[in-house]
Amino acid sequence: MDEFLRAAIDEAKHGLSEGGIPIGSVLVKDGKIIGRGHNKRVQEGNPMIHAEIDCLMNAGRIGSYKDTVLYSTLMPCFLCAGAAVQFGIKKVIVGESVTFSGAKEFMQSHGIEVIDTANNECIELMTNFIDKNPNLWNEDIGEL
Q1: 53-83: burial string, b at 16+ Cβ within 10 Å, e else
Q2: C-alpha radius of gyration, the chain, whole number
Q3: Cα dihedral angle (133, 116, 48, 70), rounded to 10 degrees?
Q4: Backbone phi and psi for residue 40, each to the nearest 5 degrees, phi listed first
Q5: Is 52 a catalytic residue?
Q6: Which of 44, 52, 113, 124 is catalytic?
Q7: pLDDT tens, residue by residue, 96-122
Q8: Statement: the pTM of the whole predicted model exceeds 0.85
Q9: Could you tell me the CA-to-CA distances from 144 to 60, 75, 106, 121 in Å, in that order?
Q10: By 3-state DSSP, what share of the chain in percent is helix, strand and coil, each rounded to 5?
């Protein structure tokens, strides 16, 4: 498995251990992780702290994002996809889109290369979470 996807999965599991939604993300530049994060909507009581947003916030100001790759365990939603577009990230590698189809076409229409790895561990992590926490999941995706 790709070491960076593994790091994103570790972030997702960290979020789950805190009582949150198991979605993780890392930002990579020049073969190194420069930011990492996980969904903290529950932990922080803030609907804006999705994994990718937390990751970008933790990366801080880096100047240009054009040579970065954003990894996420789940296909980014429109909020997070919008951040990738806004910052000029050119590649997003995703663990899965089975449990949530997200905004793949939106990112692609803005020139982002999107690679969905269909990773079984990511699918299982989200499937188990959604089965146990349907209301929390529906709140997260705006369907409550």
Answers
A1: bbbbeebeeeeebeebbbbbbbbbbeebbbb
A2: 14
A3: 140
A4: -125, 25
A5: yes
A6: 52
A7: 999 999 999 999 999 999 999 999 999
A8: yes
A9: 32, 20, 23, 26
A10: 45, 20, 40
List C-alpha distances in Å: 54 to 11, 40, 64, 72, 103: 11, 8, 18, 11, 18
Q: How far is residue 141's CA from residue 136's CA, in Å, rounded to a whole number?
A: 9
Length of the chain: 144
C-alpha 100/C-alpha 123 separation (Å) is: 10
Average pLDDT on 21-38 reads 98
Could you tell me the two tokens for 85? 């577009």
Distance (Å, whole) CA 84 – CA 139: 23
Residue 24, both tokens: 């993780």
